[in-house]
Task: structure prediction
Amino acid sequence: MTKSDKKSLSLQDGSNRRERIACLKKIVDKKFLQRNIQRRNLDKRRSRKCPAYVMVWFTIAFWFYGNDCYTQVFRWLHRFSKSLMPSSSALTQARAKIGIGIMADVYRCIVQCLCTNDTPDAFYEELRIVAVDGFVLNVPDSEENRRAFGRPKNGNSYGAFPQVRMVALCEVGSRVFFNFLAKPIRCGEVTLAKHVYRALPEKSLLLFDIGFCAYELMKIVIDRNSEFLGRSKMGRCFKKMQVLSDGSYLSKIYANDYDRLQDRNGTVVRVIEYKLDDPQRVGHGEMHRLVTTLLDENKHPAATLIVLYHERWEEELGIDEAKTHLRKSPTLRSHRPAGVLQEVYGMLIAHFIIRKLAFEAAKKANISPRKISFTGTINVLRARLPEAPRSRHLIKEWYESLLEEVSLQVLENRRNRINPRVIKRPQSKWPKKQEKHRKLPALERTFAETIDVVT
Result:
């Protein structure tokens, strides 16, 4: 093969490299990546097969193919070529070179709230509905991950895998996680939430569960010129100041018990207490309590707010989309902490790409973005991504066709049902894995050499 042929093949491979990631380029622009790569000096040691901007797309795209190995994912993103494909170790090293910073830049600049005032199920009385929740991700049980993140402890026993604790803000109307913080499992959710709340948009209505009902968090929401609606423990002391016409009452929250006893520096809130009258439902007959800054009972009736609070489950569904439908294995892939954080950014960017496709498709179909199936969108994307056209002039037509197909993935109306929050784990006859079972020494003899036929 002549030099000109090799150069032609190299240019053809470079062109093919761009062809199957057309959908990613529509959202994560190549010029934006190259500017950030140049600013961070990530292109010092350039690789023809694994340039930095391609590895950013690769780190995002392998979430679309959660069951496939690195090399297979790389093949999905490239058209067939006779040139050598990078090995799995080469892709791992190329991922390590780009680091965490470029992924954080992509997340901060790309991931954002999508809903506008005319988006269905996204606003309440001109307040953007936002939810907050925490969840954990299992990571590979390597020594570095154990040291960096730690394993959950229950009494005297430890969990099977190290875990990363995450707290995220979710736009309820689109299920987009537009801000998050990931820390070791030993960090509490309230501590993480203090930092995450800094990204709360003004004029929002924040929905939170009982674990986030803390004075310092509620004060941050108020300071952000926003409102909140969340669940509170029944044992928490709320003094009735004024009973309203719908049965709710006004009270105050304080920074500490001393302020409460002295009745100083208090913030007025509204407390709603209710029960469920349905033996088939979990929590039947129990007392439930909500606390909110929406004080006007005529403008915001108690029954309306009780139903609205359960919109918080949209974030639970978003967490399920990321943890179950994107992550196919019990743990992440990386055995090093930097790779773990890089994967977390990649996961949430990939989730945003899918939710944005669903959002744009729903806008074309004039329906709520939550009516578009997440798994249906993934399946369409997996099928259509290898069909991305060679010509740049055909990309727009291909993308419009992709959105048209996604718009057909409409979910049926939810059935009136409830599932108990329980888990069923299979019992095992095998003993539990312990520290002595890790890093066993290499065998000195092959299996065939150990055979001793009994005569």
Q: What stands out?
A: Confidence is low (pLDDT under 50) at residues 1-19.
